[in-house]
Design brief:
This protein is α/β, with parallel strands linked by helices. It has one domain. Strands 2-11-10-3-4-9-7 form a seven-stranded mixed beta sheet, sandwiched between helices. Strands 1-8 form a two-stranded antiparallel sheet. Helix 6 packs across helix 7. It is globular.
């Protein structure tokens, strides 16, 4: 189906590893993680628990990408404020063009913005890194391990764009 790009089986192990700096739970509750969050100029969170964690820390993400699921179980969406809401479908192990466009709109429109995914948001940190303004801090949950920080610098953008190309997404992203 056009507009949907599935994660190839051979890429699953590669993407199961953190794409940036992993902060374990003990670090998240310590002093250094909140300091990093506070210093970040633009923050994106991917995942309901990560978004909720930031809200409890008093840092409303500029862009939050959530799916009302945690560990594949339904949950209430995070109680974190936003002014703009984009609702998109994005099946598991997939990145849809509509999800990419919603993320792009979230960066361009009024913030804080929420992208509410019907389906699964797990892979959407990848296009978020590509589309984010330079030096944006993209945080996503690494199940059972903690929170990963990817700074949207030239290297991270190139790496993420390469993953998207290998999945078949258009180069014009």
């Amino acid at each position: 189906m056009a507009g949907q790009y599935r994660l190839p089986e051979e890429m699953r192990a590669e993407l199961a590893k953190p794409l940036g700096k992993l902060f374990e739970p003990s670090e998240i509750s310590g002093p250094s993680f909140p300091a990093i969050v506070k210093e970040a100029s633009l923050v994106v969170t991917v995942g309901d628990r990560v978004t909720e964690t930031f809200g409890k820390m008093g840092r409303i993400p500029d862009v939050q990408i959530v799916d009302s699921m945690e560990n594949r179980k339904p949950r209430l969406p995070p109680d974190v404020s936003f002014v703009t809401n984009y609702v998109v479908e994005n099946p598991p192990a997939t990145i849809t063009e509509s999800a990419v466009e919603a993320i792009r709109s979230a960066f361009e429109g009024p913030r804080p913005a929420r992208v509410l995914v019907i389906g699964e948001e797990d892979l959407l940190a990848i296009p978020a890194v590509v589309l984010a303004p330079e030096s944006t801090s993209v945080f996503y949950g690494q199940p059972g391990q903690g929170i990963v920080l990817v700074t949207a610098d030239a290297a991270a953008k190139a790496r993420s764009a390469s993953v998207l190309r290998r999945m078949g997404l258009p180069k014009t992203l």
